[in-house]
Design brief:
Serpin peptidase inhibitor, clade A (alpha-1 antiproteinase, antitrypsin), member 10a; serine-type endopeptidase inhibitor activity; two-stranded antiparallel ribbon; Serpin_sf; Serpin_sf_1
């Protein structure tokens, strides 16, 4: 069966090889770096909670990469280190359109995504940076009145709905009225499991939302031999 998920799964490749003549980074290298970023992020989040954790590395990497393109000095170094891209040139790393093309050519279908720079009406953003976000990440910009938080929340959520075909209904729930700049990303796609699950083996089972809430959901089953990994830092 082919489930549809509203956000990207941990470990998906955001940065991809555009051309061996223009970029010397291998797909394998970037894939490994992004997988390391995903693992470090999961460790950080899961160490703070015992609840279920779902991470959208794809959307988070997009936002941080968009910031990376305009950063310099210690901020750029910290972003490169955080994304696992130390030693690479931020200006020559591919943007979202190229990454999407590779994703769509592999396991991802019907990928819909968006990037937006959302400054307050009194905040000026460099036109050079806005052009870069538009050309490299396919993003856009819109000034918002953060002094009217609910109106701004509604505007951002409508943007997310438009970008993802209504699959993401609520990107934000509340905002600080003193916000000066917000960088928003949203993505929705379908993906296939390989090998595919046998739909006839799907049955309702318990899913533990947290320690107090249990719901019945369709569970897919497949019997096989699998490799098992253990993370000593997480004790999982």
């Amino acid at each position: 069966m082919t489930p549809s998920v509203p956000l990207a799964l941990v470990g998906l490749l955001l940065l991809s090889l555009v051309s061996s003549q223009t970029i010397n980074y291998s797909v394998e290298d970037l894939t490994n770096r992004n997988a390391d970023f995903a693992a470090q992020l999961y460790r950080s989040v899961s160490s703070r909670t015992d609840d279920n954790v779902f991470l959208s590395v794809f959307t988070l990497s997009t936002a941080l990469s968009a910031l990376l393109c305009t950063a310099n000095g210690p901020t750029q170094d910290q972003l490169l280190q955080g994304l696992g891209l130390t030693g690479l040139d931020p200006q020559t790393l591919p943007g979202t359109p190229e990454g999407s093309a590779v994703l769509q050519g592999s396991i991802v279908m019907n990928l819909q995504q968006g990037v937006a720079i959302l400054p307050s009406s009194s905040f000026q953003v460099s036109s050079t940076y806005l052009d870069l976000v538009q050309t490299k990440f396919g993003g856009n910009a819109q000034s918002l009145a953060y002094t009217s938080p609910q109106e701004t929340v509604d505007t951002i959520n409508r943007w997310a709905q438009d970008q993802t075909g209504d699959r993401i209904q609520e990107l934000v729930t509340n905002l600080d009225s003193q916000t000066q700049l917000l960088l928003a990303t949203a993505a929705s796609y379908q993906t296939r499991f390989s090998p595919s699950f046998n739909s006839s083996l799907t049955q309702d089972e318990r899913f533990y939302v947290d320690r107090y809430h249990v719901v019945m959901v369709p569970m897919m089953f497949r019997a096989d031999k699998y490799f098992l990994a253990y993370d000593r830092l997480l004790k999982k």
